[in-house]
Amino acid sequence: MKNQLQTEKKECVYCSGKGYFQLLLGGSETCNCCGGSGRK
Fold first, then answer.
1. This protein's superkingdom (predicted)?
2. Tens digit of pLDDT per residue, the chain (40 long)?
3. Which residues pair with 39 in a beta bridge?
4. Hey, how many other C-beta atoms are within 10 angstroms of the C-beta on 35?
5. β-pairing, 20-22 with 28-30?
6. What is the rounded distance in angstroms from the CA atom of residue 32 to the CA atom of residue 13?
7. Which of 3, 4, 15, 5 is closest to 39 using CA atoms?
């Protein structure tokens, strides 16, 4: 359980560690919070 919590804290909260957002009309956009890295 501790490993899972530590992993979640390292991921960007807004994009869930993906580094991008999937747009509704198609395509994707880089996450502004983490700059596309997927980490905090």
1. Bacteria
2. 555 544 546 899 999 999 999 999 999 999 999 999 999 8
3. 11
4. 11
5. antiparallel
6. 12
7. 15
